[in-house]
Amino acid sequence: MEDFVIIGSGVAGSTIAKELREKYGENCRIAIIEKGDNPKYISEGKNVEVNYICGVGGSGIYSLGNAIKTKIKGYKINKSIYSEIWEELHIRSPSDDFLRDIDRKFADLGFKKMEKFINFNKCKKCGMCAKKLCEAKWTPINYLKKANVKIISNFNTIRIEKNDCWVVKDKKGRDIKTKNLIISAGGINSPRLLKKVIDDDNIGKNLFVDIFITIGGILKDSYLNKDISMLMCKQYKDFILTTHYSQLLYNEITKTEKTNKIKGIKEKDVIGIMIKIRDENNGIVLENELKKEITKNDFKILARGISKGSKYLHKLGVEEIYSTHPRGSHPGGSLSLVVDEFEVKEGLYVCDASLFKETLGLPPIVSIIALSKKLVKEIL
Asked: Which runs of consecutive H residues, i.e. helices, occur in 261-355?
């Protein structure tokens, strides 16, 4: 019998595990259930491709290290919690010496340096933040190591029951018993898990994904592919512009190259700006499907972002603008119509981006950590 079982080992799950260990000590029995094992990308959705990571550490494994403090509607976060986060993750902006020439050109256009949970002294400027682990960046693995908890991987939950305690069962016939169960499987999988416990038509509704596209073109020897993505940013009311090298953008350009017989374009010659918007929370998570449409208002915001971004690219010397298809990488809000605060039933809690009541349109990791710390400090 465990004292606490957490479903999900990502940003929320790892934070909760670490906080529980610090609060209750080594005698507290804590286990984490993880559907995957080694991290791998999962893609769902048709009109908007939504990507997340299944595996130990979740989507935080391949994050870009962005640290932005946001207001979380409905949840008052004490300032001391943010102070803890900044200290634990060693969050800071890069020095001017760290910037490449292309970053300085963006700075001249009014872009600001993004705060990151990255040790810039250890960063190798490989441009692979979204593809591989490195010692320079904080990830949920750091918290999992501090928590020193049992991690049960490849556990595909098929049933959650409440008898004398909470019981979680998987396809292999394994079951885990616990006094307290915390669902932290993310904006897509948490509603699917909660549906196994309660029957509510609002479960899975209100989904947002922070829709984004990357626009860009050819700028010889810009070397943005070797930069930390989203290192330079500019915030607007409903969207954010950030520097972003995209393999998809490169593919779009090279595909057109062959048609136009343009030769010699390499990855180092591709420059891009990501446009990430506050999309309407009109999506829904179903058991085996995700539905998310781009609304008229979403199109309007994207169009404004494209207009702004294109002007900056032209000022840098880019002549022809290319674009990727719409994607989403921050699913959230999918339990905001069902879960009030954190507790669903006695001993059953939810804590992750699925609780966000409105779209952030910004990197959410700091907000998820803050929410998770609040749960342990004030509720558990």
From this structure: 296-316
SS3 call for 322: strand
Taken in order of first residue, the domains within the chain and their CATH numbers are: 2-93+115-206+331-379 (3.50.50.60), 207-328 (3.30.70)
- For residue 250, which of 217, 224, 286, 221 has the smallest C-alpha distance? 217
C-alpha distances in Å from residue 342, one per residue of 209, 251, 300, 365, 379: 21, 43, 34, 18, 8
Residue 256 has pLDDT above 80, yes or no: no
**The one-letter amino acid at 218:** I
Which 3 state secondary structure label does DSSP give 186? helix
- pTM, to two decimals: 0.96
Q: Which H, E and C letters describe 194-227, residue by residue?
A: HCCCCCCCCCCEEEECCCEEEEEEECCCCCHHHC
Asked whether the predicted pLDDT for residue 360 surpasses 60, the reply is: yes
C-alpha to C-alpha distance for 83 and 97, rounded to whole angstroms: 26
What is the band of 373 on the pLDDT scale with cuts at 50, 70, 90? very high
Residue 20 in tokens: 């529980």
Q: At 328, which helix (H) or strand (E)?
A: strand 327-328
Token pair 């209100």 in the structure block, residue: 206
Q: What is the pLDDT of residues 137-155, one digit of tens each?
A: 999 999 999 999 999 999 9
Query: Residue 257's pLDDT band (boundaries 50, 70, 90)?
Result: low
Q: Please write the tens of the pLDDT for every residue from 167-188.
A: 999 999 999 999 999 999 999 9
How many CA atoms within 13 Å lie on the side-chain side of 83?
3
Q: What is the pLDDT of residue 154?
A: 96
Q: Which residues pair with 180 in a beta bridge?
A: 4
Buried b (16+ CB within 10 A) or exposed e, 60-98: bbbbbbbbbbeebeebebeeebbebbbebbebeebeeeb
Residues contacting residue 252 through CB under 8 Å, at least 6 positions apart = 322, 323, 324
Give me Rg for the CA atoms of the chain: 21
